[in-house]
Design brief:
The chain has 242 residues and is an alpha+beta fold. It has 2 domains: 3-78, Nucleic acid-binding proteins (OB fold (Dihydrolipoamide Acetyltransferase, E2P)); 82-237, de novo design (two linked rop proteins) (Up-down Bundle). It contains 7 helices and 8 strands; from the N terminus they run E-E-E-E-E-H-H-H-H-E-E-E-H-H-H. It has helices spanning 80-84, 87-103, 110-125, 130-144, 188-199, 202-206, 210-228; strands spanning 3-16, 20-27, 32-37, 55-62, 68-78, 165-167, 172-174, 184-185. The protein has a 5-stranded mixed barrel. Strands 7-6-8 form a 3-stranded antiparallel β-sheet, with no helix packed on it. A hairpin with a 4-residue loop joins strand 6 and strand 7. The radius of gyration is 20 Å and the shape is elongated. The chain starts with a strand and ends in a 14-residue tail after the last helix. The relative contact order is 0.12.
Length: 242
C-alpha cells in the first residue's frame, strides 16, 4: 500500500533541512504517523498552514522506508488560530497533544483520535473552561488506554463508596481501611467533580467551586504523571486560572 489517505490531527512538527518539516499526527485509521512535509516552510507552500499543531486535515501520504511523505493535505478543521489566540486554551491544547503523542502508538486508537479532536474543538469554541476541558480529556484518555480511575468504589477492595482517600498508585479512591499513611483525603465535592469530569457531566463541572476545581486538577495531574511515567513538560505551563 504505497499510497494511502486518512484523516489526522497534527500533534507536533519539527524542522527538517531548510524547507521541510517532520509532522507527527494521530490519524483516524492508521494510528500515529510521522511523515515529511516537503517545502512547507517556504512562503509559496500550498498546505503548510494546514499542517500546524491542533489542525485536523485529510492527508494523502506515500509510504517511505523510515518516514512517510505527505503529498496532499486538505483542511477539515482549523482549530489552531482560535486555540492559539488564548493562552489558557493554548497551554491546555499543548498538554492534550503531548498526552496523545505519549499514550498512543503506531496502531493507534479510533477512540483516542475522536476524543482528541472533540477536546480541541471544545477548546476552540470555548464551550467550557480550558482547565476543566483538559482534566476531562486526561481522565478519559487514560481510561481508553486501560487506566480508568475509580471515583466511587474502593479501587483495592471494591467496597462500595463514597470514599475520600485518593491514591494514584492504587487506581483511585480507596477505603479508609486500606489507605496508606500519608494518603490524600479529598473533599467529597472534589470526588464528585472528578467523577463528573470522567463521565462528561458538564452541568456538575461548570457549577463546581474554584476550590474543588483546583483540588481536582492536582489529582488529575498526579494520576496522569504516574501512569505516563515520564512527566508531561507542557502540563507545568497550563494556566489553571482559566
Amino acid at each position: 500500500m504505497p499510497l494511502y489517505r486518512d484523516e489526522a490531527v497534527v500533534l507536533r512538527t519539527h524542522k527538517l533541512g531548510e524547507a521541510d518539516r517532520i509532522v507527527t499526527m494521530l490519524s483516524r485509521q492508521h494510528g500515529k504517523i510521522r511523515a515529511v512535509a516537503k517545502g512547507v516552510r517556504r512562503t509559496a507552500s500550498k498546505f503548510g498552514a494546514r499542517l500546524e499543531p491542533f489542525m485536523v486535515a485529510d492527508v494523502q501520504l506515500y509510504e517511505g522506508r523510515s518516514l512517510d511523505i505527505i503529498t496532499q493535505a486538505e483542511s477539515l478543521a482549523s482549530y489552531g488560530a482560535d486555540i492559539s489566540a488564548d493562552y489558557g486554551c493554548y497551554t491546555a491544547a499543548s498538554a492534550m497533544v503531548e498526552t496523545a503523542d505519549k499514550i498512543t502508538d503506531d496502531d493507534g486508537s479510533l477512540q483516542q483520535y475522536l476524543l482528541l479532536v472533540g477536546a480541541l474543538r471544545s477548546l476552540a469554541r470555548r464551550e467550557h473552561g480550558p482547565s476543566v476541558t483538559l482534566d476531562s480529556y486526561l481522565l478519559r484518555s487514560l481510561s481508553i488506554a486501560g487506566w480508568a480511575p475509580s471515583f466511587v468504589d474502593c479501587a483495592v477492595t471494591g467496597e462500595p463508596g463514597p470514599h475520600t482517600y485518593f491514591v494514584p498508585q492504587l487506581g483511585g479512591v480507596v477505603a479508609d481501611s486500606v489507605a496508606p499513611p500519608g494518603a490524600a483525603r479529598l473533599d467529597p465535592a472534589t470526588v464528585s467533580l472528578l467523577g463528573a469530569l470522567l463521565s462528561g457531566d458538564w452541568t456538575t463541572v461548570d457549577t463546581a467551586s474554584d476550590l474543588s476545581r483546583n483540588q481536582a486538577s492536582g489529582v488529575v495531574a498526579a494520576y496522569t504523571q504516574f501512569h505516563l511515567e515520564r512527566g508531561l513538560r507542557s502540563l507545568q505551563h497550563v494556566d489553571r486560572r482559566a
